[in-house]
Amino acid sequence: MYLEAAEHLNNVLNYKKGKARVFYLKGILENIKSNYNESLNFFKKSLDYSESIQYKKGIADVYIAFGITNYDLSQYDEALENYKKAIEIYKVLNDKRELVTSLINTANIYSETGRFNEAIANYKEALTLSEVINDESGTAFVHGNLGVLYSRQGNYPLAIEYYNKSLSYDKKTGDILGMAKRLDNLGESYASIERYDKALEYHEKALTFLSKTAHKTLIAANNSNIGSIYLKKRAYTKALEYFEMSLKVSKELNNLRQIAICYAQLGNIHLLQNELLIARKNYVKAKDISEKINDGRILSASLLGIAETYLLVKQYQKSLSYAIEGQKITEKLKLLENQKKASRILSEIYKNRGDYKKALTNFQQYKILNDSIFNKENIEKITQLEYEYKYKQALDSANIRELKLTKTVLDTSQNLKRSQRNLLLGIIAFLVTTLILVAIIFFLKLRNAKSKTQNVIIGQKLLRSQMTPHFIFNSLSVLQGMILNKENRKSISYLSRFSKLLRIILENSRDRTVLLSQELMAVENYLALQNLENERYTYIISVEENIDTSLFKIPPMLIQPFVENAIEHAFVNQSKDRIIKIELNFSHQELTCIISDNGIGIDSLTERKNQNKKSLSTTITSERLKILSKDFKKKGSFTIEDRKKYNEQGSVVTLVIPYIKNGTE
């Protein structure tokens, strides 16, 4: 309903960026409802509008949406291609939050297709970025996906640990869909270690949450998982019921991978019930679909299932061809369970055909694989027990330490009571003397530290007192005008930006240094706020690729005075094509900020009257940089030039900023 209203307003205003956003959100809505074809159509319309106005962020977002939908449709190559396109754009935009999303989605595909090393590399890069930008949601999502990966590798205790980390965050934020996914994952993990009742408990909880979201894809997957548990418990009727439900929904959604899984599992049920023709029919359907979507795991299982149906009716030649084909895939993907099954089937075929040498070779391979899987399962169980043992051991150790500490305290107390009075008085006298000496030393050091930093503090206070009152007065005046003119939306936007900038200034003012990323955020908010009323000028902020803004710490409020001077003085009698450009470079261990404009130029400006304010800010900044250079032991200076010497218009400020780099302090 709200999207329709937004679309109407965008059409009235012919606001293309708004149209692109509406179609993007409509596509997401249809994807959630599993209407994938409609979803893709909306994303295509969004992409067309974003490309028509060169809206880079919108283009990248749509590529991510395409990739997610391709993944849901088991179109893995197309999904990877779309994610790569998005990653390239987000890197140019230096959008770390969206880079996290792209890396996670890429890793999901690598994990799904068995490329685990590439998956882990992408997940860990995403986890590092999430922690850098303090993105708890991204961290939780990575934990969930790492759980999936470790589960596929058979490390179920570690998988359960990561699932629970992710579930804790989803509970904290009330993310129903997230909780449903993690509960489903936990159910799969407990089923893998044969704790079927606990697994069913988690899957049923997941279905409760999924029924509130109407997410058909996940409901189908969850029903399939429950069916697998009943199959392992040999409750074939219940297993059939759940796989049929999953198959029905998956067909409605055209979810090819889930359809193939259901057919393969139905084949397994009918094979166990000796209904060979029905089993083979289902295996063939699973084989055809898995070949189409290039899913080797399902394909190998289907081929071996077909081979077994022919083996049981003594059609050894047909059984042999399917078994050999299935064995090749299992060896390529290192699927131990299916390799074991292939060796068993081949041993039986060769024995019945009289080729005892090959029969023996395959039987020996079967035994080796069976022992390997047995050992692997034992290792997994040992690992799980080790986790539980270490936890109990830690609790026991803590209790023992507590008892020892209590005994020590009691013994010490009794010893103190038995101590002679003169010894106690001597200790007290010694402590008092020590405290007095420590207080004197501390006072001297504090006075020395204050004297060293006093000049820096004074310089910072002078600069802030110069900018803040004047800026706040002007901002409130503009806001008052908007409110009087009943420009409600504009005034709300202006107030939001103003409060955000004010908060950043107040936070930065408490610190001796701030991250370069925070300083640039403050400058960008200041420029946006100045420009919000009537878009008086264009501003550009560019950061050289070799600069990681999350590593550099600089003194706060160094760049802003020069930007303020450019805004207030550079564009006298110039109403159009006003540009302010801020460039950050790092070369020869110097961090340089170049602030340029295309205004009247510094030479013309100095000839005009009433330039006291600029002279004052320049003088204060110059003195402040001298003090900071000594404090940081890094060069700090600035120069102001008229661009006419370069046959250009305007002024350019070259500011060399003292800095501290994290990891090198």
UniProtKB/TrEMBL annotation:
Domain of life: Bacteria
SUPFAM superfamilies: ATPase domain of HSP90 chaperone/DNA topoisomerase II/histidine kinase (SSF55874), TPR-like (SSF48452)
Keyword Membrane among record annotations: yes
Domain Signal transduction histidine kinase internal region: 461-533
Keyword list, A-Z: Membrane, TPR repeat, Transmembrane, Transmembrane helix
UniProt TPR repeat ranges: 60-93, 100-133, 140-173, 180-213, 220-253
Protein name: Tetratricopeptide repeat protein
Organism: Zhouia spongiae
